[in-house]
Amino acid sequence: MDCDRPIGVFDSGVGGLSILRALRAELPQEDFVYFSDAAHAPYGEKDEGFVSERSLAIAVDLLERHRIKGLVVACNTATAAAVHLLRAKHTQLPVVGVEPALKPAAAWTRTGHVAVLATRSTLASAKFRSLLDSLHGQAEFELVPCDGLAAAIEAHDSERIAALCERYTRELSGFGTAAGEIDTVVLGCTHYPFATDVFRELLGEQVQLVETGQPVARQTRRLLERQALLNPRGEGKVRWQTNGSPQALRGAAARWLGL
């Protein structure tokens, strides 16, 4: 049956595991195939044409090899570059992308000041600029391109992660709950939630950290329900596929998902 087929999830590396974590919590009976395009990571420092080409190729591979029933583009950069192309090419396939959580951040901020940490490619994309423009007047957004942070998380380089998080938060104005201070920070790359503890130590408990996993998981459920594709009897299995190091992917899944 179609509902028994797995959901495909892909990212340039291990960052998409933060989305997979939310998907498994929301849809515990669904089976997944996770593709890590580690040979080309990170996407955030590649040009848009290359990322689009890789995204289209991965979708075809997941369809042909695993007969996926839905696709989650678990990467902000790939979503900005290619989600419209994927939807146009695979019109019957539910395709869910991710975007920096600016809308929830604008709703939650009390000071009206929000920081957005993301890759340079995401911040420069037309999709992101359109999202930002749609929220004009709802909050002040300070944008910080975090070069190298996704790669450091990919490599599980704790010292470099700490140094880069400190460097990029230092570029911003003051954090806190007083007027004019930043009280909400958007983690605008799927890798960044895996540095939450570092950000929390730097920013304190009063600053909200916003990521995209739960909204993506809820949207995936909605699209599958609409096409009667929810699996009532799946076992929550995950199959792993990578063109990089299987050991690195296995280690990240164990470290961050307990798998």
UniProtKB/TrEMBL annotation:
Coiled coil: none annotated. SUPFAM superfamilies: Aspartate/glutamate racemase (SSF53681). One of its GO terms (molecular function) is glutamate racemase activity. It catalyses: L-glutamate = D-glutamate. The keyword Isomerase applies. Substrate binds at D11, S12, Y43, G44, N76, T77, T190, H191. It is an enzyme of class 5 (isomerase). One of its GO terms (biological process) is cell wall organization. Pathway: Cell wall biogenesis; peptidoglycan biosynthesis. The active site is at C75 (proton donor/acceptor), C189 (proton donor/acceptor). Keywords: Cell shape, Cell wall biogenesis/degradation, Isomerase, Peptidoglycan synthesis. Provides the (R)-glutamate required for cell wall biosynthesis. NCBIfam families: glut_race (TIGR00067). Belongs to the aspartate/glutamate racemases family. This is Glutamate racemase. It comes from Ramlibacter ginsenosidimutans. The gene is murI.
